[in-house]
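Researcher: Predict the fold of Platelet-activating factor acetylhydrolase plasma/intracellular isoform II.
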Amino acid sequence: MTTRTSDSGPRRRALLAATALAAVGVGMAQPKAVAAPAARRVRLTLPAPTGPYPVGTVSHRLVDQDRPDPWVASRPSRELMVSVRYPARDVERYPRAAQLLPGEAAGFDRLNNFGGVPQGRVDWAATRTFAHQGAPPARARRGAARPVVLYSPGVGDPRSLGTTLTDELASRGYVVICVDHTYDGSAVEFPDGRVETSRLPEEYVRAKQEGTVVELLRKTCAVRVADLRFVLDRLEALAPMPLDRSAIGAFGQSAGGFAALQAMHDDRRIAAAANLDGVLAYVEEDQDPGPLSTVAADGVDRPVLTMGKDGNDHHTVPSWGALWEHGTGPRLDLTLLGSAHATYTDATSMLPRIAARLGLPEKLVTDAIGTVAPERAVAVQRAYVPAFFDRELRHRDDGGLLDGPSARYPEVRFVD
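Model: Structure tokens for Platelet-activating factor acetylhydrolase plasma/intracellular isoform II follow.
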């Protein structure tokens, strides 16, 4: 879930409520602008991955016939879209995939967590990732199976808003499955062209009126966890190469990080999980002590990484503190100094360029991604998230990067 600030109240960021409130109070309040011609709209680029492999991608529609859709009663089955990122070869013959399909781009333009960016001024559909559509997979040494990582985005965000990190992991040999949570994300486009938009703003307004916000937060996380576990059930059908089922990880930003850790708590197929600034309680403020999720109340016996915005750690966020107190597996808590909530998304690369091109106030950028230099924020995430999964899933030496402070990354604080 990506932070944004409402003019009518304090910043709210926990799991769902912050995003939904911002969507209603800020995003929908933005004037409906007529889209500028594409030539005059801002076009964006993303950082190229740094690993030894080029990246391929394929997308899949998944249908869970055993689960009615929890958000739309008229739908008898839960439908998801996922993108699979993987190490590839011979990519020159295959086009680079769009970050957002046209329907997703239109939905993101109408409802997103980039508060203050006017509608119709950014060509969201023009951004290309460094993943090549349908490229053949790279051959692993001696037919070795690849480790797998699931990615869950923040509430209201599309699965593609974590492209920088997911492409990075794929370029380093991982198969990464990026999951869209239908009726949660801003817009999900299916192969037949149908676009399903978020139901959460209206759900939040109703819950606020009825006094059932905690119940809505519980439901939102439960749906996400069920989505991730269903994807695990379909792994073999998704990946274009052999997968190592003993080396499955999960990570996400905000509510996606919450879902990743909760899914690990609920499903022993997940061996390690990373949480990028996601609160682990059903609360509207990070420092609210409860009610706790079961992953926080019980802890887990497998490796956990938390990376928080500046000021968030297991001493200041009660749900993280509970996880630290009750967990028995390895736990690593890092703070990226100068960061904010959306630092752990592609907003880090996007927002500074948007603001510069459109003459938007610097506060819009710093409220979302903090004061850390964007290129340094990207470098830190590319270093520490892969190092965590390398150590816990591949059992590879990370050169001591995760053992303590590094002169290469002075922005990173290890929290004891």
